[in-house]
Design a protein that fits this description.
Length: 438
């Protein structure tokens, strides 16, 4: 594995270098003759402010482009990038030497890259250099390769769930788990999905194998199945956890819940947009049990979690299907399924305008009519997330009123990976206790 790919870009020296380089580049682009300083710099600045101000208003107030408000500082970063690009034009005209002119565009690019780095620091979506190019920082096997490496003779699994009390790590147990890229078909739901990923902990790879529970993790939208590997670094965390718990950790399944980036994501509902609820509650569990023999003892061995769109999914499925997912972690989810186009469009596209059909699957409506004695979960919200936090509090109160064993936790930061990772990382001991391992 290329060590350069693992260089962090959200902390350490690289972000500081980028910001310094960006400021110096912007100063160089702004510096020049009196005419440049008194005419072109103010013009470029005003154009940048007007453009980004207009874009902010349209994106946040008119189009709802992101599905939730973004921190205003992100628009400032983008405005600075635009300011640098606009300054490049008069700078090229003012410079006489060819070599100096050739430097202008690369220096303007430094400003843009620096601004992009600041945006990425907010979300921590790309944690390393390699993640910019699709490298999740871990070796990934195909299912066929995994089965060939282990062999059919390795498949038998103890009938009783493995716990720390009844598990003695075999000498052949590896020090880290495997990550597989797989395709999970939808024979019941007929959902079309992209590739999924599965993390298998060390205790699963040992001989004999442990009988382990399953944690299904849902990504955000926009986003995809690599999110939990890239931004969440879930396999590395699970390896660390397993290392401190005799190799024991859940089998982690990261399925596609966005139907290959459709314009109208299925939102983990059964609707005209797809049978995503059936896919995630029947097709995925059936395939996991058949393929890996995990989670076969009882529903108590199953949990679901997710962030943002995925948090809404986890909450929706746990409420509608407690017999499948009696345990859940909702990280920064919404109070109900939404799409960027708005609730009216959702009702029309998904339910032919039938609000009652939506209400039958909407968690807040369902919670008013059911009691949940065996369900337990955690709702985490970013302490600085002014948009999603009130929704999380609303969901928590509704669940508590319906009899769920649920707690509300403030996570660090806003609507970004520091808060999203917290839901799983901080609650792993509780989760393993719920799943019957601790």
């Amino acid at each position: 594995m290329n060590l350069l790919n693992q260089v962090p870009i959200v902390n350490g020296a690289i972000p500081a270098i980028l910001v310094t380089a960006g400021l110096l580049a912007l100063l160089w682009l702004a510096w020049g003759s009196r005419r440049h300083l008194t005419r072109w710099v103010p013009v470029a600045f005003v154009l940048s402010v007007l453009t980004m101000g207009t874009f902010w208003y349209m994106a946040e107030k008119v189009w709802n482009l992101w599905g939730e408000p973004l921190p205003r500082r992100l628009y400032i970063y983008a405005g600075l990038a635009l300011f640098g690009v606009l300054l490049a034009v008069p700078k090229i005209v003012a410079l006489r030497r060819l070599w100096a002119r050739l430097l202008v565009l690369p220096i303007a690019a430094v400003v843009v890259i620096s601004a992009a780095g600041l945006v990425n620091q907010n979300f921590e979506y790309y944690p390393t250099v390699g993640s910019l190019f699709g490298d999740t920082g871990t070796a990934i096997k195909s299912l066929a390769q995994f089965e060939a490496d282990k062999g059919a003779a390795e498949l038998p699994i103890p009938p009783k769930p493995t716990t720390e009390a009844n598990w003695s790590p075999p000498a052949n147990m590896p020090s880290h788990g495997d990550v597989l890229i797989v395709h999970i078909p939808g024979p019941i739901s007929h959902e079309i999905s992209s590739d999924a990923f599965v993390y298998l902990p060390p205790a699963y790879l040992a001989t004999p194998r442990a009988n382990l529970p399953v944690l299904v993790l849902i990504h955000g939208v926009p986003g995809g199945t690599t999110d939990w590997l890239r931004g969440g670094q879930i396999n590395k965390f699970m390896d660390q956890y397993a290392g401190a718990h005799h190799g024991l950790a859940p089998v982690v399944v990261m399925p596609d819940a966005g139907a290959k980036w459709q314009n109208y994501p299925p939102a983990c509902l059964n609707s005209r947009a797809g049978q995503a609820a059936t896919y995630l509650t029947q097709d995925v569990p059936n395939w996991v049990k058949k393929t890996f023999g995990a989670g076969t003892t009882s529903p108590r061995q199953w949990a679901i979690g997710g962030f943002s769109y995925g948090g809404t999914c986890a909450m929706t499925l746990a409420v509608n299907h407690p017999e499948i997912y009696p345990t859940f972690i909702d990280s920064s989810g919404e109070s109900q399924p939404t799409i960027d186009q708005g609730h009216t469009v959702l009702l029309q596209k998904y339910f032919a305008g039938n609000a009652a059909a939506f209400a039958k699957q909407n968690a807040l409506d369902v919670l008013k009519t059911r009691r949940y004695k065996g369900s337990a979960g955690v709702v985490t919200v970013g302490a600085n997330d002014s948009f999603y936090r009130p929704q999380g509090v609303h969901v928590f109160r509704a669940m508590e009123h319906a009899g769920m064993n649920v707690r509300l936790e403030d996570a660090p930061g806003g609507h970004a990976w520091p808060a999203w990772r917290y839901g799983v990382y901080h609650n792993m001991d509780w989760l393993m206790g719920r799943l019957g391992v601790n």
